[in-house]
Amino acid sequence: MTVDEVDLTDLDVFERNAAWPRFDILRREAPVNWNPEPAPNSGFWSVTRHEDIVAVDRDSDTFTSTRFTNLEEIDDDLIEKRRSILESDGLRHRAIRKLLQRDFGAQTLKKYEEVLRGLTHATVDAALRKREFDFVQEISADFPIQVLAKLLDVPEEDTGQLITWSNQLIANTDPDYATVLLDAKESEKYKHLPFRSPAALEVFEYGRELVRQRCGGGGDDLVSKLINRVPMDGESLTATEFDNTFLLLIVAGNETTRHTISHSMLALLENPDQLALLQSSPELIPTAVEEMLRWACPVYHFRRTATRDVELRGRHIRQGDKVVMWFASGNRDEDVFVNPYDFDVTRHPNDHVTFGKGGPHFCLGNSLARMEVRLMFETLLPRLKKIELAGEVTRVRSNFVNGIKRFPVRVSAG
């Protein structure tokens, strides 16, 4: 394959898990590469080397998030309707982020560890009562959504609906999940909504009902804090800002950890020496978590937009061009990771870019994700006597979310 044949808009490639050789070609031959797109989109620059991804991510003055962070190009008159903290920069971004930052900090989360460990045990116990089950459905999806329900203080019986909404939103290019596909003509009716998905309307109404119940109260849940705290810039969240922030919490608090757990378990199954090592030396699990995050890279990319003409590795990027950081490629960069296609639970140091790298949009939930993944494998691995595939593993049809849809397993547990 040549550079000119690499097309990172081809969803078949990602569904087949065949993007990795394409990333390798780009890193080696064209680390900043123009990728055309079908109309109405205008094409984008792919940035695939670790060093360049970090540079773009940290320079929000030159590469802004305010023109949105996935490949879809939003009409100017709809930008404010669809803007969340992800699509903000500067003071307002920092103000809204700070509202939640303390609640997602490592020190605060330590208070929740035993509660979350209990949720982990409940998920694992329920799954292992069955000899055969779908790992995604019974473990990977169940645990993060239970944690999110606890943080939002919503009923456990609502978690299934939260998962469905999240799938419909973030996997809007997968016909197994989306009720309206992103590239369908029908999606024009929903272009004012996040992900062009009608599911957003249901998420908004669910969140608004929580607001009606909790506005002016003294609750300690994330919804209460969003609506009853005033950001540091002195401006309370507008109704639209709340809608979009609440929707982001539903998606980000569920999808990324779910897919990290799924990819990590599959990697352990395919590398039985690494599974045996973690079972015999569980003290390695915190180090292994970083390798799991590198390996899984549950979000393939985030996009920025150039605010001015700029040169990057000799390529002239024009003001207004889309610039896409392929985190998945950065996590396989041979200049940073020795044998990057080896899953090595002892890998250290591990300078992955799964959460971004030092920029203003560094993932707010990184400490929570690390804790969830660690707790899951600390709980699950000692219980597994044997695990094997019981059918085909299928992946989400998306070049945005690197997800596993189905992962049938057969287990023997202690």
From TrEMBL:
Question: A GO biological process this protein is involved in?
Answer: cholesterol catabolic process
Instruction: Give the species this sequence originates from.
Output: Actinomadura spongiicola
Query: Which InterPro entries does the entry link to?
Result: Cyt_P450 (IPR001128), Cyt_P450_B (IPR002397), Cyt_P450_sf (IPR036396)
Q: What is the protein's name according to its record? A: Cytochrome P450
Question: Which family does the similarity line name?
Answer: Belongs to the cytochrome P450 family.
Q: Which UniProt keywords apply?
A: Heme, Iron, Metal-binding, Monooxygenase, Oxidoreductase
GO MF assignments = cholest-4-en-3-one 26-monooxygenase activity; heme binding; iron ion binding; steroid hydroxylase activity
Q: Which Pfam families match?
A: p450
Keyword Iron appears in the UniProt entry: yes
The lineage's top-level taxon is Bacteria
